[in-house]
């Protein structure tokens, strides 16, 4: 049985209409990604009870919580701008939820210290929250969210306000904290696909309020359900199926840059396993450190290919692995 | 989320507003519809159609417009200097100028008489310089009205405009500079356009204050040619004794006020800063030009602000009485604290001081709490209507309100002094509430809603979140609302005078009496105490505000 079940959740907003089903398993780390304005944060608010759906129901452990107020859901949330209580110091922020539950002061104190060490902020208890850096503030927010012993932890773009290095460090910590409590279910919202791939058990892609796909990072990358998912999860090339003689009734084929071999000299490859395109003109190149991403022009079509070296010649041949090709019809994967 | 809690919070202030404001007001205004023969529209029709009303309106609008215009114009260069440059006395100057805003207007009147009057400091200096015996006539003219209004309102304009200017990041201007725009061009097409809403909102607020200004026009205007609607209502009621016509005039004034108020509420909303930048816009002063400009502006402001205040304090130690001897004297203070017996009004001084403080504290506490509840609800509901409701009493003059209360009091028919006290407190409360609302509701609205949401997800009830988290976040605005309400109550004359019939004596009432009996030393001593009281409360609230500010940066 799934931990959290969103059934036919519907609501109209000025920018989009939310309309989806989604389920999250116990102990799972699920990440919701999508373009801005697609309804990610709204969905999180609905799960937390800060917003309510017009139709549909939310089940937590099989129990309908659609009309349960946020206070009684046992779902806590971390916000992008931390939302720490400015009138309290770090320790009081973290101990707050326990105080509400009338936990004894001494127990609160030790529990807060434990949470602080969990987020690597031991000794910060007496600090004013206004003196914290962004990274520290977000760790405190994380500790505070965990302090109510939630069964589900929601994180709404928690790292967006931080710089790239810190973001990478903290995202690993978020995952470590999730793993440290086996029953904790985490739903994480981000618009950064790299972040999503790095930490998630499963990723849900949302577009215009609708669920495009929900699967493991690898499946999403290797076998995207729609052309939108294919593009949203990484680089790739879509070509019209008319260019090739295919037995499949697809209108578009799609492949990733790393599934293309770039050769300057003749290369004898099995034409059963490769599609071979000669006379591709190199028109752009992007150096990524481990490789180049080349932009090629084949008869007016733009193709992205990965290459470990920068080609000396202006025209190259490419070999596209047939077993890596994805076939789409009307934007939907039919491979 | 349904929030029943905030609705329950708002019920109390709404009910109180209804009883304290709407009821007396409708009692008063309804009088305009009755004559000896019963219901009639003649009175109202008469007031609305006679050219005299429109002449009054025209003058009222004119003086309010000029007062607002002059105040903003004088404040603008100051706002420019204060927002763009860092200098040591900046905070002091800003606090000092906000002090004038909370000074009771009766005190301003007194200060002006002492400072600008015929035998005042300005004229004595003038006579010394010229060697003649002529004096400049400043008081009892149109100039005096504008000058007094400017004194009270420049600080409002200065602090409002400086605030929003300081919060504007320099980025847009720098972007324009990189595109090749010159300084003047940048000022007019970028800085000024972004500043305009707050300039306009400051202007409208001042316009509103001056539109309903009463004692300044009554005392300093000094002539029938300078009669505004408010003064005319007072004159019609208290001198001509035609209360029905006064009520009809009140209706007219109320409608005009309401229109201004609504415009103000809409404009001031757009003036609230959305792009708050964290960086400090102000840079240290380097050039001599700026240093000179600052010196000149600050010196002029100091003379302008401190002149009347210091004259009151100085004059309180000077006796001009033939009987007790001329020159330095502590007599008035000795009279106040009862160390020597006194005759006349001074005998009530100590009681008046206690009354003023007691009434002021009660009013400030009640107004702050009620305004807090109302603005919490209106921000949750995001309702402009509620906000306007809270500001409603601004649209009504204290003269009109006092009349309404007077009518109610006549119905109660109780001789108890307690009833008089209660009525004075309630009338002050209604007068102070809109100011408390105005201070609190922008602060409540700009609060980070997600902090509350975070508390909800941690299992905290709405009520607990509100009291433990939301309200502590408003500490400095609460302090400000408290001091404003206190200052208003301590300085209030009209309603107190109409209502208490001399039984509840407060400092400004005493002041008023002493001015009338030409006991200027006594008046100045009371004035000094009033200044001191205001100053102490003001410093406490400034300190609270400053501490909050430091925490945030």
CATH topology of the largest domain in chain B: MetI-like fold
- Uncertain runs of chain A are none
Task: Tell me the Rg of chain B in angstroms.
Answer: 24 Å
Oligomer: heterodimer
CATH class of the largest domain in chain B: Mainly Alpha
- Please summarize the sheet with the most strands of chain B: 2 strands, antiparallel
The CATH architecture term of the largest domain in chain A is 3-Layer(aba) Sandwich
Residues in β-strands, percent of chain A: 25-35%
**Overall 3D shape of chain B:** globular
**Mean of residue pLDDT values of chain B:** 83
Q: What is the CATH class of the largest domain in chain A?
A: Alpha Beta
Which runs of chain B of at least 5 residues are low in confidence (pLDDT < 50)? 549-553
Number of domains of chain A: 2
Number of domains of chain B: 2
- Give the number of DSSP strands of chain B: 6
Largest beta-sheet details of chain A? 6 strands, mixed
Could you characterize what this model shows?
The complex is a heterodimer of chains A (335) and B (553). Chain A folds into 2 domains: 4-225, 3-Layer(aba) Sandwich (Rossmann fold), CATH 3.40.50; 237-333, Beta Barrel (OB fold (Dihydrolipoamide Acetyltransferase, E2P)). Helices cover 25% and strands 33% of the residues of chain A. Chain A has helices at 40-48, 90-100, 105-118, 134-147, 164-180, 193-199, 217-222, 227-232; strands at residues 4-12, 17-24, 29-33, 55-60, 63-64, 75-78, 152-156, 185-190, 202-207, 210-215, 237-240, 252-255, 260-263, 274-287, 292-298, 301-307, 315-321, 326-329, 332-333. In chain A, α2 (90-100) packs parallel to α4 (134-147) and α3 (105-118) packs across α4 (134-147). The longest helix of chain A has 17 residues, at 164-180. Chain A is elongated and about 75 Å long. The two termini of chain A are 30 Å apart. In chain A, 39% of the residues are buried. Chain B has 553 residues and is mostly helical. Chain B is 76% helix and 2% strand. Chain B has helices spanning 4-30, 42-49, 51-84, 90-102, 105-116, 121-130, 142-166, 171-178, 183-211, 215-221, 229-238, 243-271, 288-315, 331-336, 349-381, 384-391, 398-412, 417-446, 449-457, 462-473, 475-491, 494-500, 507-516, 520-552; strands spanning 34-35, 38-39, 85-86, 283-284, 318-319, 327-328. In chain B, the strands form 3 sheets. A two-stranded antiparallel ribbon of chain B has the order 1-2. In chain B, strands 3-4 form a two-stranded parallel sheet. The two termini of chain B are 33 Å apart. The relative contact order of chain B is 0.13. The interface between A and B is medium-sized, with 35 and 20 residues.
